[in-house]
Amino acid sequence: MTEHLGVAVAVIPSGFDVPVEPLRRAAHYTGEPGCIADARAFAGRFLEQLRTEWCATVDSRTGGELLLVVSELVTNADRHSGGPYILELEGTDSAVSVSVYDSSVALPRFFPKDPERVGHHGLEIVRAVASEISVDRVPVGKRVRAVIRLDG
After folding, report:
1. The CA-based dihedral angle spanning residues 122, 128, 130, 134, taken in that order and rounded to the nearest 10 degrees
2. CA nearest to 83, candidates 107, 104, 106, 69
3. With a cut of 50, which residues of the chain have pLDDT below it?
């Protein structure tokens, strides 16, 4: 911790003694047609900004995995919440956190792998590419969060 003007501030080692905040962006979606594609485009622009502002190295595979996670989580919110949802992205040069907030109180179910099952593979896919996944209740519903590592 470093103290600036009498306030303790966490410092990410960067070679400079200044606080560094992760890049954060959020978008609100109504659930109307085209929202999932809009969310993917939003995530693509976020990745470009992360490359520029954080000098993050994001190869095409990891970028594709991030867009896949965004698609799966937003699709689940779109299908199961019956209302608007929020996509929140937070990133540094080493990881991106994808959070989707929706108004449904029903928690998602994690199904075991079953290649013969039709449907319900979204969270299985997210679990396969994310380094962390969590589900939390929030005052108006839930938050599903997945972390994608950028450093392999």
Report:
1. 60
2. 104
3. 1-5
